[in-house]
Amino acid sequence: MSIDIFRIARIGAMAAAMLLAATGAMALGGEVDMSWLDEAVVAHEGGSAIQTDTGIAMMQGAVSHSATLADGLSLSGSAWALADSLPSYDPQVLPTNVLDFSSRVLELDLKWEALPGSLVFEAGKKIIHPSSTFFKAPLDIMTPPSPAISNTSEQSASAVGKWEEGLVGAGVTWLTGPFSFYDYVSPRFVWSDQVSDAMLYFTGDQERFQNLAKIGARIGDTDIQLLGLYTSSLSGDASDDRYAAGVGIDSELGDSVTVRAEASAFNTTDRLVASGPGSSGYTSSTESVSWAPRGVLGATWSNADELSVMVEYYYNALGQIGSAYTTLIDYSSMRAASSQMSGAYPDILEQYGDFESAMHYGFCRLAGKLDQDVHAESWLEINLQDASALYGMDINYVRPTWSIEASLLGSWGGRDTEAALLFPIWRAGIEADLFF
Amino acid sequence: MKSIGIAAIFALVWTAGLAAQTPDQILASVDARRNIDNLTFSLRITSYDGDKETDMNLLWGFLKDDPDKNRVLLFFADPASVKGRKMLMDGNIVYLLFPRTKNPIRLSPLQVLLGQTSNGDIARTGFAKDYDVASLADADLNGTSCSLFDLSVKEAKKDSSYKRIKLWVEKSTNRPLYAEFYAAGDKLLKKAFYKDYRPALGKDFPFVLDIYDGEVATKHTVMEYLKIGTRVLPDTAFRREYLESWTPVAPQ
């Protein structure tokens, strides 16, 4: 009961903050999005597949504020709230309530510029994003808190969600000569259920200690960053600690083309693999993979009329190829087709994430300005192994304090392909945004 | 009478000195009259199509004038739809940081910033740094006696969007009044009028720059400095890695 009171009070506080910000009574900024989506998915029931249509309505918003407390000392933060009619995003799972409410502090960062422009200390809760690629983000190697705010039901082409949650920790940035050094330490804390409930609106449990170090430099016109990450094991056993290394470069070719490349790898990563079919059907098991690199190579061409074309190639050594990939897809197809299998067998595709179970992917995006206030984009993500794809297009009318966006997303490929197993057949949406 | 004589001698010496200057040196002296190093500013950029206002943005910024290139830190303060964006222009290299993302993305130099305004229009504090004087002649601009500089981009700056500039400078004041910017092949990209000169921080500063599209005569963008001042920031503040740490405050 007390939790409900907490929840209602916080939702009320969030709504009041948004209202105050919208009326200009506080020096805040923010955004409120109202969206309605309709999507068609394949549902399996009693051995047959049927297409179901589902409508989802949601409203989410974030307020942000930045204040200078003293010379060189500042505090900034943002909080987020969501009202969602289908929090599971699964049309076969009925929500408990008409609307499900969530809210969370996304960031809260106390910053001290000990040497202005050169040495900055910070503490609080912060989103860490070293990656500068678009479709996938190999350098975003820190594990988010649990449960992190997901990308809600947005399905954009970007690897980075619109509403992300930071990691609690402390960091330092030191800029000297042509180099920059950055280190962020995020402690491990797993509290009792009671404390976790009380802290729910600030942060979820952080199950691992993590320390990210980054060195940046520019050589000529090329930006280079080197990353190292130490992350403790879930069990506390030091022999299960993990390490990762990453490298990224950004540069440009002439007046109109920017290029980027980045890659990272962990010393060890566990993954589920499927095998079979044998005498007992399909089976799954866990295996460890050492130093399996993930990398993106990409380029963007743009012109003075705000037209841009982006292409990216993603290599994922954690994914499967050849007969192992075929087995994985067959396993997943069988599992999806049978509710009995769904309960008895782990969802291996879910473990990989969206478009992560194969080794080779491609991406392209065309974006441009149709008019002063009208922007449009279309994009295509393609699994280069089974030729299945996810595509999307949207058109956005933007005014200084509001915008309205229409979007369409669809998957393409045969029944036994990754796209067909992961994504809806199509999804259409309308979103209205208010900015303040 | 003695003082008048001394003044006349000084004037003669100054005029003789000016006459001895090369066209490039004259251009540098034109720049020096209005350049303010370590400039902080609040800048309103308004775009028009005819008389209709199509877009307005308020930016806060810092400009560092280096010998070989200019660097600018920008914060988008208004309207709400773009509020919170931060931009770094480091010579020809441009980084943009969106709110809620943490790693600045690189933009190509060709991308237009706002309306008819390019990154270079905000970063440019003068012409001599990037351009050589190909020719210098007398010209009349709407009844005002001017020096007409025909400028060609230096070899080291050949990545610049403008390969050639024609610049009209008022003879009596050394104020740039009007310029035409050309791409390769002498295609006229934009025309700019320098207006509202006022004394500020010891210089003769144009507070308004009105930029017209080279092809569509009705489209123009007005850059208007609302507040200016100076503040020295270290070189490291104009680095990609500092953008995320930078906490902008409104220029005073």
Structural class of chain B: alpha+beta
Mean pLDDT of chain B: 86
The total strand number of chain A stands at 20
Radius of gyration of chain A: 23 Å
Give the largest interface. Answer: A-B, 61 and 41 residues
Number of domains of chain A: 1
**How many domains is the backbone of chain B divided into?**
1
Q: What is the average per-residue confidence, as pLDDT of chain A, rounded to a whole number?
A: 86
| Helix-and-strand structural type of chain A | mainly beta
Element pattern of chain A in H and E: HEEEEEEEHEEEEEEEEHHHEEEEHE
What general outline of chain B do the C-alpha atoms trace?
Answer: globular
CATH architecture of chain A: Beta Barrel
- Kindly, what is the distance between the CA atoms of the first and last residues of chain A, rounded to a whole number of angstroms? 35 Å
The CATH fourth-level homologous superfamily of chain B? Lipoprotein localisation LolA/LolB/LppX
How many distinct helices of chain A? 6
Here the CATH topology of chain A equals: Porin
Q: In percent, how much strand structure appears in the residues of chain A?
A: over 45%
Describe what you observe in this structure.
The complex is a heterodimer of chains A (436) and B (252). Chain A is mostly beta strands. Chain A has one domain (2-435): Porin, CATH 2.40.160.10. Chain A is built from six helices and 20 strands. In chain A, strand 18 and strand 19 form a beta hairpin. With 252 residues, chain B is an alpha+beta fold. Chain B has one domain (35-243): outer membrane lipoprotein receptor (LolB), chain A. Helix content of chain B is 16%, strand content 47%. Chain B contains four helices and 13 strands. Chain B has a 13-stranded antiparallel β-sheet with strand order 6-5-4-3-2-1-13-12-11-10-9-8-7. Chain B is globular and about 55 Å long. In chain B, 39% of the residues are buried. Chains A and B meet through strand 2, strand 3, strand 4, strand 6 and strand 10 of A and strand 2, strand 6 and helix 4 of B.
